[in-house]
Amino acid sequence: MPAATSATAVTVGAAPLLPHDVVAVARRDARVALDPDALERVAASRALIEALADDPHPHYGVSTGFGALATTFIAPDRRRQLQASLIRSHAAGTGAEVEREVVRALALLRLQTLATGRTGVRPVVVETYAAMLDAGITPIVREYGSLGCSGDLAPLSHVALAAMGEGPVRVGGVEMAASDALAAASIAPLVLEEKEGLALVNGTDGMLGMLLLALDDLSVLLDTADVAAAMSIESQLGTDAVFAADLMALRPHLGQAASAANLRALLGDSPIVASHKGPEDGRVQDAYSLRCAPQVHGAARDTAAHAGLIAERELAAAIDNPVVTVDGRVQSNGNFHGAPVGYVLDFLAIAVADVASISERRTDRALDPARSHGLAPFLAHEPGVDSGLMIAQYAAAGIVSELKRLAVPASVDSIPSSAMQEDHVSMGWAAGRKLRRAIDGLARVLAIEVLTASRALDLRAPLLPGRATGAVRDLVRSVAGGPGPDRFVSPEIEAVAELVRSGAIADAAAPALAKGHAR
Question: How far apart are CA 459 and CA 454, in angstroms?
Fold first, then answer.
């Protein structure tokens, strides 16, 4: 979603970050403040690592190689080279650039783990990551490279590489060398010491960042889905009786109750709905795509709530391998495995696909004169000469088909790596990448439904829509024309999609949504 610059500072190290903290830094360029006590913890754990560096016995990541090379002892005079080589070799991403907000989220989340004092880095490493975020230095991270186990290795390595003053970055959208960007911001490039390279790349930060951003998007899109459904139900002469609170209480799912309350509030004052209430309305019940909107939208809400719980737990984690424990041990572990996050990323992709699917079905009903209860075919001005919104529905159908493919879980796959040392991986990064594409698709499908329902509401004149749905229709009219002869449709779809993504559609209906949630 679009975001404005924010001067509000997010404190790192005092307590686990909250989801909105991550979103604020990633999307609104909130500044980062380091908790002084956290820096003291970081210094204390660093002292333990430096003691181990002098130990003649090997310690993984401190005086050994990595992965399948963990049994190779590295002499003290080669350890800086070891850490730098780790970052350079692991910065092996390929493909398109990852979005700025994702890179900022993963850098912030790695910073949070560094600030726990459980990774053994020096305070200067923590300070450098915070300074890069505040300076708006965004390392260029590539689409492919993470298997979601041993952390998001390649994406995090690209960030670490930039902190070393190597590789490309963007500042204000302009690509430049990391060395130049650091120099312009008066940030000294890091020279990594024992354990530090490893600490910078072992984490689920990329997939967790994408999860948090997705949940932020869905908080808007699921409200928008309720608005779109209400507009479709209203314009297709559907009933709101099926959303009654006592009926919802017979199946006490929280998400279903919330969406039904929204629909009651959105439709409760509608003259169109009132025009066909009572015994004179001979229809027994509406089609599933109208009648079951709260059941589908509500299931998606509950799925998002579960994913949010997992995200909050992951935000409280300190993920590294090996990790410096509270009692001072340096212990290998498997906490970098991305399964918990990967599963819910895939789960959300299923929910997103289904919400888009039911939305597209409501759009299709509005365009079919056999099912739209008196509306013109395809809502065309002069059917035959004009095609109306026929192909807009094609676009929605094409997106929904793509979303079904994107709903196939990534986390069921695993390809062994590192000479079979890393023989089961999560593919959580891939799950996050496809969820981002799915959310973009959902926003567009909802936009097409809102555009279609707005025209259908206009065609019900002289009957008027309810206050909230009418406000949304009026907002749509500020970027897209009403009924009339055929015109270039694509710009109108794009404009309404931007209203959906920005939250403007949900905001226009906000009084009714707030009333619905209060019930």
Answer: 9
CB of 207 closer than 8 Å to CB of 493 = no
Give 438: exposed, middle or buried? Use CB within 10 Å, 0-12, 13-18, 19+. Answer: buried
Domains and CATH numbers, the chain: 9-203 (1.10.275.10), 216-316+339-518 (1.20.200.10)
pLDDT at 4 over 60: no
d(CA 487, CA 475): 19
Q: For residues 228 and 443, give the distance between their C-alpha atoms in angstroms, rounded to a whole number.
A: 11
**Distance between CA 367 and CA 397 in Å, rounded?**
13
Q: What is the distance between the terminal CA atoms of the chain, rounded to a whole angstrom?
A: 28
The helix (run of H) or strand (run of E) holding residue 9 is: strand 9-12
**DSSP-based three-state secondary structure for 149:** coil
Residue type, 367: L
Closest CA to 451 of 479, 419, 412, 426: 479
Confirm whether pTM is higher than 0.90.
yes
Cis peptide before 322 (omega within 30 of 0): yes
> Phi/psi class of residue 241: alpha, beta or left (left: φ > 0; alpha: ψ in -120 to 50)?
alpha
Q: How far apart are CA 496 and CA 350, in angstroms?
A: 24
Query: Could you give the CA distance from residue 332 to residue 101 in angstroms, rounded to a whole number?
Result: 31
Question: Kind of pairing, strands 94-97 and 168-171?
Answer: unpaired
Has 343 been annotated as catalytic?
no
Which residue in 60, 144, 288, 343 is the catalytic one? 60
> CA-to-CA distance for 78 and 23, rounded, in angstroms?
40
Bridge partners for 94 per DSSP: 144
pLDDT at 67 over 70: no
Q: Of 409, 408, 293, whose CA–CA distance to 357 is shortest? A: 293
pLDDT at position 167 is 98
**Residue 138: strand, helix, or coil:** strand
- Distances, alpha carbon 31 to alpha carbons 138, 164, 310, in Å: 14, 21, 26
Closest among 268, 269, 255 to 225, alpha carbons compared: 255
Report pLDDT digits (tens) over 383-412: 999 999 999 999 999 999 999 999 999 999
**Higher-confidence position of 283 and 273:** 273
Whether the Cβ atoms of residue 54 and residue 159 lie closer than 8 Å to each other = no
Name the pairing type of β-strands 142-144 and 94-97: antiparallel
Closest by CA to 339, choosing from 300, 310, 303, 316, is 310
Cβ-contact 213, 437 below 8 angstroms = no
Tokens standing for residue 341: 């996050």
Query: Strand pairing partners for 73?
Result: 64
